[in-house]
Each structure stands twice: as structure tokens, then as C-alpha cells.
Specification:
Layout (H helix, E strand, L loop, with lengths): L6 E6 L2 E6 L3 H7 L5 E7 L8 E7 L5 E5 L18 E2 L5 E2 L1 H4 L4
Antiparallel strand pairs: 1-2, 3-4, 4-5, 6-7
């Protein structure tokens, strides 16, 4: 976990994305499995829990979305609404479900 907002650009599938520098090695390992796709991530920057949201594409055609470390299932209420994070008053992002803070 880093205390600063350092981002690096990494290749995820066919796209390049910016991720927290301290999470880049973990995300690369997770995405080495072609059945897993990283959707969102944040190291927490010393304030919140580290989160990596992934989509697992199973052989039976089911796509599960969950937080990698806690394994909490995260199915969006609306089909194309994948808002994983909220911003606090200081501009830091967190996930209310993981932090136990329903807003």
C-alpha cells in the first residue's frame, strides 16, 4: 500500500490502464489467467482497504464479479452500472461495501 497517488500504465488484455503503482505486480499476476479480468482497483493509500475488483469468466458462461482479497460478491444493481468507488471529502476513493460504510 502506498501513501501517495502514484499511478503506472499497464496492459490489461488489449487495453492499457493506469493503476496504483504498488498494485501493478499483483494485477499483472491476477490477469495472467485469461479467465480473469481486472475491472477496478485501489490500494487504499493508507486510509482504506486495498481492493481489486475482477470478473471471472467461468466455463459454464457465468461471469462473476467480486473483490479479489475479500471474495465479496459484487453484482451491480443495474446491468451496466459498475460504480465500485465513492470519493471521500479529501478526494480518496473507497468502496462502501468493503469498508462497511453504506452511503
Amino acid at each position: 500500500m502506498c501513501n501517495e497517488r502514484n499511478k503506472v500504465r499497464i496492459k490489461l488484455g488489449k487495453k492499457y490502464r493506469y493503476v496504483d503503482a504498488c498494485l501493478a505486480p499483483k494485477i499483472a499476476i491476477i490477469n495472467a489467467d485469461p479467465s480473469v479480468e481486472t475491472l477496478a482497483s485501489c490500494c487504499g493509500h493508507g486510509r482504506y482497504k486495498t481492493t481489486i475488483f475482477v470478473r471471472a469468466k467461468w466455463r459454464n458462461g457465468v461471469n462473476d464479479i467480486y473483490e479479489f482479497f475479500s471474495e465479496i460478491d459484487y453484482q451491480p444493481e443495474k446491468r451496466r452500472c459498475l460504480n465500485f468507488y465513492k470519493k471521500d471529502k479529501d478526494g480518496y476513493y473507497f468502496n462502501p461495501k468493503i469498508e462497511g460504510k453504506d452511503l
